[in-house]
Amino acid sequence: MREKVRLEIEKVLGSNFKLETPPEGFGDYACGVFHLAKERGRSPKEVAEEVSSEFFSSLFEKVEPCGGFINFTISKEALKEELLSITEKGGEYGKKEDRRVAVIEYSSPNIARRMGVGHLRSTIIGESLARIYRHLGWRVEGVNHLGDWGTQFGKLIYQIKKEGVDPSSLTIEKMEELYVNFHKDGDEEEGRKYFSMLEKGEREAREIWDLCVKASMKEFEKTYKELEVEIDHVIGESFYENMLPGIVEEARKIATESEGALIVEFDDMPPAMLLKSDGSTTYFTRDLAAVKYRKEVFKPHLMLYEIGAEQSLHMRQVFRAAEMLGIKEETELFHVAHGMFSLKEGKMSTRKGRVVHLRDVLEEAKRRALLLIKDESLKEKEEVARIVGTGAVKYGNLKVHHKRNIVFDWDEVITLKGDSGPYLQYTALRCKSVLSKGGSYGEFDDLNEEDLSVVREMMRFKECLQDAAENFSPNILAAFAYRLARSYNLFYENYKITGNNGRMAVTEGTFILLQTALHLLTVSLPPKM
Questions:
Q1: How many CB atoms lie within 10 A of CB 278?
Q2: Residue 54, phi then psi, degrees to nearest 5
Q3: Fold of 2-74
């Protein structure tokens, strides 16, 4: 709807205006005329009053001057057409055709460590952005950039051999224990030596490393299945090993030597290390190789890195070096830097200094969701609780802007009230139930202002979807879904729906958009609640 409005306004005002959403009660859209007033040498109020009479589009029911602004109210006929479009297109509504390509890096856990709650934000925000861009017609290549290389694997191999552990029996929990043991009494020099052996392809070191990767991936896949996340490409840091000599040689033209190491210096930030003094590579080297590989293979217009804000300096260094080397070219590189995630004290305790594991959080969510289910006869109660609990955790993350820190309060997340995943799921199922009981409906003209108030929320879907993509912010879409659900529930409580074709259409439109929005936010609908 926003683009239709923009085109109509351009016919009168030209393209130099900003379209805004006015306060409630002042129409659906607004724009200022201050630039026009300056050109004409008159007050904005006078110009708004003058030009508001020049709009004759059937798109608008009212065009009203308000100070230096003009407020536009969408007509009943235009709203009806939008509702018809939603009900006819269903889940295809809002889809576009676009030839652009996006590469999105997200999740990216470290091998030999269980995923902590910190990985939740990267995984879910990245998956949501991938779904949003696909809905808008982009070809999306999701990449899980595993932390499967580096000195820490030398330390792990050393500790495995030191303690005489059978590598074929390794579990991710045992690998964590070994890593902790190394940092209690391990030999750092031995750790570096074993990583050097790994880099040089020493057979036993490679075999142990391979078993560590396989045991870790087995654990990760369980978590991804529970989160209903599928990432297109699992490409660990080790994948770029054969490319590293080439990227180092290429980067020598912008690098300098410093105390035996090879570094890249920048004017406005600390230097980044390409090679350590012992000749081993770094995260920086491997990330540069990854940029080059993705550029050559996927030919993307956009590369998104959904990584924690603590990596902001590192990502700036990588992006700048890629630009200096001419690797970046016309591809936009952007770091979607998410804030910290923590649990409210007392809600789920862990021993001091220990990571809160993601699987434990999902189990707790399922346990709490079970308490919401009052129907003891409900079949597949455990599965419903999983869908509701996991959906609550995911929506609780996505409704907050990625830059903000989150203090997770279970009482606000696992609830059927307010801005929560279960509330949206329940509303969608309420619509589905009404539609199943109301039967089919035909043509409708019986839309009054109360009905249209819900449709006015629906018409924002496309613009919220576009804004979420352009700002890399799924929270914009989450806010839309909550506003729509709240508007429909108020409508449902006050008016009889079955038997009224217009209100049945409103219910169907609400269900379609809630289901679509929830899917894009990675939240599934349970069969019942």
A1: 13
A2: -95, 0
A3: Gyrase A; domain 2 (3.30.1360)
